[in-house]
Amino acid sequence: MKKVFLIIALGLGMVQLSQAQSSEKPGGFGVRGGANLFNFGGDDVSENSYTNRVGFHVGGYTMLFMTDRLALEPGVYYSVKGTQNDDFVDSRAILGYVDIPVLFRLYPSDGFNVFAGPQISFLASSKFEGDFFGNTVSYDSEAIKETDIGLVLGLGYNLPKGFNVQASYDYGFTPIFKDSDADVYNRGFKLSAGYTF
């Protein structure tokens, strides 16, 4: 857990540093959160094996405008991912990560924007659960890799008074299981609402 707090502190430090170095146009610090809809993806995942699992994400970001239409947005979020299996015990994987995306936002208009960028994620917790005879049985797992590399793509819109909404897709590149050649990745959608101070 200490490592997770250190990662968050370093990420927030990078956010503040990038904000302080903005010279063309002042950026803004913001908070954002919302719902996750994640699943396992990859060649070794059967289409009928897993279904999307609902989670959440919450964190902060800063905007560093490089031009009037292009901004760099580093952020730090806690995000719950995983998957659901429609088997007889309703088994599920619940994976908590600290996500650190570095997004490039392009503003074709004042409100609408498109964004993309790399993301590194650090595993904070990994748990597998199942329901047996009305009782939930869970155990912590060490089978999940500690880091995950991916790409974030999305669309956003800035509302009045600092509010914003967006939809994005996380495309994981790193197989998530340790000591395995299985092509299984974190993949999923995020729906978010935010506020820039």
Provide a descriptive summary of the structure in words.
An eight-stranded antiparallel beta barrel has the order 1-3-5-6-7-9-10-11. The two termini are 29 Å apart. The radius of gyration is 18 Å and the shape is elongated. It is built from one helix and eleven strands; from the N terminus they run αβββββββββββ. By secondary structure, it is mainly beta. The chain has one domain (2-196): Porin (Beta Barrel). β7 (112-132) and β8 form a beta hairpin. Mean pLDDT is 84; it is low at 15-26. Pfam families: OMP_b-brl (PF13505). InterPro entries: Beta-barrel_OMP. Keywords: Signal. This is Outer membrane protein beta-barrel domain-containing protein. Residues 1-20 form the signal peptide.
Outline the fold blueprint.
Elements: H1 2-20, E1 29-41, E2 50-51, E3 53-62, E4 64-65, E5 70-85, E6 92-106, E7 112-132, E8 135-140, E9 147-158, E10 163-172, E11 185-196
Antiparallel strand pairs: 1-3, 1-11, 2-5, 3-5, 4-5, 5-6, 6-7, 7-8, 7-9, 9-10, 10-11
Pfam families: OMP_b-brl
InterPro entries: Beta-barrel_OMP (IPR027385)
Protein name: Outer membrane protein beta-barrel domain-containing protein
Radius of gyration: 18 Å
Which shape, going by the Cα principal axes?
elongated
- Quaternary organisation: single chain
Output the strand order for the largest sheet: 1-3-5-6-7-9-10-11
Assigned CATH architecture: Beta Barrel
What order do the helices and strands follow? HEEEEEEEEEEE
The largest sheet is: 8 strands, antiparallel, barrel
Report strand %: over 45%
Instruction: Estimate percent helicity.
Output: under 10%
Q: Termini distance?
A: 29 Å
Mean pLDDT: 84
Q: What is the β-strand count? A: 11
Count of discrete domains: 1
Look up the CATH topology. Porin
CATH class type: Mainly Beta
State the secondary-structure class: mainly beta
Number of helices: 1
Parts with pLDDT < 50 across at least 5 consecutive residues: 15-26
Keywords: Signal
Protein name: Outer membrane protein beta-barrel domain-containing protein
Pfam families: OMP_b-brl
Domain Outer membrane protein beta-barrel: 8-197
